[in-house]
TrEMBL record:
Gene3D superfamilies: MetI-like (1.10.3720.10). PANTHER family: ABC TRANSPORTER PERMEASE PROTEIN MG189-RELATED-RELATED, POLYGALACTURONAN_RHAMNOGALACTURONAN TRANSPORT SYSTEM PERMEASE PROTEIN YTCP. PROSITE patterns: ABC_TM1. Pfam families: BPD_transp_1. InterPro entries: MetI-like, MetI-like_sf. The keyword Cell membrane applies. This is Carbohydrate ABC transporter permease. Its main location: membrane. Belongs to the binding-protein-dependent transport system permease family. One of its GO terms (biological process) is transmembrane transport. It comes from the Bacteria. It is a multi-pass membrane protein. The lineage of its organism: Bacteria, Bacillati, Bacillota, Bacilli, Bacillales. It comes from Paenibacillus mangrovi.
Length: 305
C-alpha cells in the first residue's frame, strides 16, 4: 500500500525542468489560439492605403482609425443595434436556460411517467422540422411576433441538442440517492430541483448558457426574416447591412464616377476587420463569467458522509 501511495506521489510530482517545458508548450498553444484575433485587430487599425500597398503586416507602416470611424458613422443606429443584441442575448439566454433545464430534468428522471414520449419528441425535432415557410407563418402570422424582440428570442429558446446534453448531465452527475433523501425529508419536486439539483448542475448549466449566449449574439437570420423596423435591428444584421453597402459600391464603381469617389474614401478591408472586432470583442467577456461558474460548479454540492 505504501508503494502505491509513493508511486502516485511521484507521478504527480513533476520536475522543475518538465514543468518549464509544459508551461512553454501551454503558452505557445494559447498564443496560437489568440494570435488570429490579435492579427485581425492589427489589420483593423491599419491605414487602408498602407494595407493595399504593403499587404498584411504585424507592425503596419501607418496606423489609422478610419475603419472604426466609418463603421461608427452610422451613429445611433449602431449603438441601438448593440442595445438590441444585448437585451435579446440576456433575456433569451435566461429563458433558454429555464426551459431547457426544466425539460431536461424531467426526462432525466426514471420516475417520470412520460419520460420516453418526451425523449422521442425532442429527438424528432433534431431530425425533422417544419421548414422555413411554415416557421415564418407561425412566428409572423399565428403568433404575431413580426417586428418584435420576441421574434429574435423565442425561435432560439429551445434546442433539442442542448436538452440531450443537459439530460445526460443530470443522469450521470446528480445521484438518485440525493433526490430520494430530499423526498424523504418532505421536499417537493420544485424544491428539490431548485435547492439540490441546480447547485450540482452548474457546470452543465454554464455550458448550455454559453452555447445559448453565442447563438443569440451571432444570430442574424431571424432578424432578416422577421425584423423590418430599423430600431429593432440587432448587431450582426446591422454589420451585414454595412458590409452589403460596401459590396454594392464596389460592384457599381465602374459605372459611376460618384461611386468611384465614394469607394476610394471607404476603408474596405480594414472596415471588414473592424466589424469582426466589434462583433467578437463583447462576447469574449462572457467567457470569464461562465468560467467562474464552471469552477464554482465543480466545488458546490457534495454527498456528506
Amino acid at each position: 500500500m505504501a508503494n502505491i501511495i509513493r508511486k502516485k506521489r511521484d507521478f504527480h510530482n513533476v520536475s522543475r525542468g518538465w514543468n518549464i517545458v509544459l508551461n512553454i508548450i501551454a503558452g505557445l498553444f494559447a498564443f496560437i489560439c489568440v494570435f488570429p484575433f490579435l492579427f485581425v485587430v492589427i489589420i483593423s487599425l491599419t491605414d487602408e492605403k498602407t494595407l493595399a500597398t504593403n499587404g498584411y503586416q504585424l507592425i503596419p507602416a501607418k496606423w489609422s482609425l478610419d475603419a472604426y470611424r466609418y463603421v461608427f458613422e452610422s451613429g445611433d443606429a449602431l449603438l441601438r443595434s448593440y442595445g438590441v443584441t444585448i437585451v435579446v442575448t440576456l433575456v433569451g439566454t435566461l429563458i433558454s436556460l429555464i426551459l431547457i433545464s426544466l425539460y431536461a430534468y424531467a426526462i432525466s428522471r426514471k420516475s417520470f411517467r412520460y419520460r420516453n414520449f418526451f425523449n422521442v419528441f425532442a429527438i424528432i425535432t433534431m431530425l425533422f422540422n417544419g421548414g422555413m415557410i411554415p416557421t415564418y407563418m407561425v412566428v409572423s402570422q399565428l403568433l404575431g411576433l413580426k417586428d418584435t424582440l420576441w421574434a429574435l428570442i423565442l425561435p432560439l429558446a429551445m434546442n433539442a441538442f442542448y436538452i440531450m446534453i443537459l439530460r445526460t448531465f443530470y443522469s450521470t452527475s446528480v445521484p438518485e440517492p440525493i433526490i430520494e433523501s430530499g423526498r424523504i425529508d418532505g421536499a417537493d419536486d420544485f424544491y428539490i430541483f431548485l435547492r439540490i439539483v441546480l447547485p450540482l448542475s452548474l457546470p452543465g448549466l454554464a455550458t448550455i448558457g454559453l452555447f445559448s449566449t453565442l447563438g443569440y449574439w451571432n444570430d442574424w437570420f431571424n432578424a432578416l426574416l422577421y425584423i423590418d423596423d430599423p430600431n429593432l435591428v440587432p448587431l450582426q444584421s446591422m454589420l451585414m447591412r454595412i458590409e452589403n453597402s460596401i459590396a454594392f459600391i464596389q460592384q457599381n464603381s465602374a459605372n459611376s464616377s460618384l461611386s468611384m469617389t465614394a469607394l476610394q474614401s471607404i476603408p474596405q478591408d480594414t472596415a471588414r476587420m473592424a466589424m469582426v472586432v466589434l462583433a467578437t470583442l463583447p462576447i469574449i467577456f462572457a467567457y470569464p463569467f461562465f468560467q467562474r461558474y464552471f469552477v464554482q460548479g465543480l466545488t458546490v454540492g457534495a454527498v456528506k458522509e
